[in-house]
Amino acid sequence: MTDTSINNQARAGAGDAGFGDYFALLKPRVMSLVVFTALVGLLAAPVNVHPVIGFASILFIALGGGASGALNMWWDADIDRIMKRTQSRPIPAGKITEGEALAFGAFLSALSVVMLGLAANLVAAAILAFTIFFYVVVYTMWLKRWTPQNIVIGGAAGAFPPMIGWAVATGGISVESVLMFTLIFMWTPPHFWALALFMKSDYHEARVPMLTVTHGRRATRAHILIYTLLLAPIALGTGFTAIGGPVYLVVALVLNGLFLKGAFDIWRRDEAQAEADGYRAEKKLFALSLVYLFGHFGAILAESTLAQFGAQFGLGGW
């Protein structure tokens, strides 16, 4: 299929978009992570937030995250048409035009930032605005197609939501919110590199300089292990701060032990072994990485809930 026929097909399909197609532009799976980590940041903060303000703030943070996804799909429409895992997205599928995605993403970006500033405070709104800018301009437009460090540096965009949630409650930034940011920031490279190992042809065909393309798969396996080794002490150290505690430490010990083992298993393998079993270890680590992040932030949320329960009923130790 030629580029011309693809464009004609896209124009022919445009206008048939429904609510589900526009919702897909928001990258709902990514948005769920944004919402969850922002909510944990908000609830873990040492300041109570009125439920209405909290709900509105999380809603606008979600819209900002979705706006970033729509603008990412607008800019990446050309490579989304090439990569197998993205060909069903609304733009390459011909449901929504690139111009419509741009207008939709820009509108939601402005709306989310302004409304978060009105609902919460200017610090939270400023961090959200910077997050959208970083993801769309710094990562999508620049880093993604320029350097194999795209995921390393660009991972900061996905690490900001808990800081935004914390800022909604406190109006500022603290050691604890920076630790939550760092946890996601260091988790992102092994998470995406594990995916890149078994999505082997997509990044090559789209000419995206993922580490697997520029430095090879052996180097990628080594980088996954190195970043996992760097991630573990950060994750465990968080347990000894105000947002940590015994529940968090138990969860962190188990998950980091499993994650380290998975990274080591991947490092020991070569491509022949991986291809022989259909990249089973790589897919297992990718799935574990999702459990890893939700588990750590779920434990932070549990510690916050227990602390509030203990304060309410005069219990010590929480």
UniProtKB/TrEMBL annotation:
Location of this chain's protein in the cell: Cell membrane
Keyword terms, alphabetized: Cell membrane, Heme biosynthesis, Membrane, Transferase, Transmembrane, Transmembrane helix
Gene3D superfamilies assigned: UbiA prenyltransferase
GO CC annotations, alphabetized: plasma membrane
Membrane topology value: Multi-pass membrane protein
Transmembrane segments: 30-47, 53-75, 96-116, 122-143, 150-173, 179-199, 220-240, 246-264, 285-302
InterPro entries linked to this entry: Protohaem_IX_farnesylTrfase, UbiA_prenyltransferase, UbiA_prenylTrfase_CS, UbiA_sf
Pfam families: UbiA
Its EC number(s): 2.5.1.141
Signal peptide: none
Family: Belongs to the UbiA prenyltransferase family. Protoheme IX farnesyltransferase subfamily.
Cited function: Converts heme B (protoheme IX) to heme O by substitution of the vinyl group on carbon 2 of heme B porphyrin ring with a hydroxyethyl farnesyl side group.
Protein name: Protoheme IX farnesyltransferase
Species in which this protein is naturally found: Aquicoccus porphyridii
Higher taxonomy: Bacteria, Pseudomonadati, Pseudomonadota, Alphaproteobacteria, Rhodobacterales
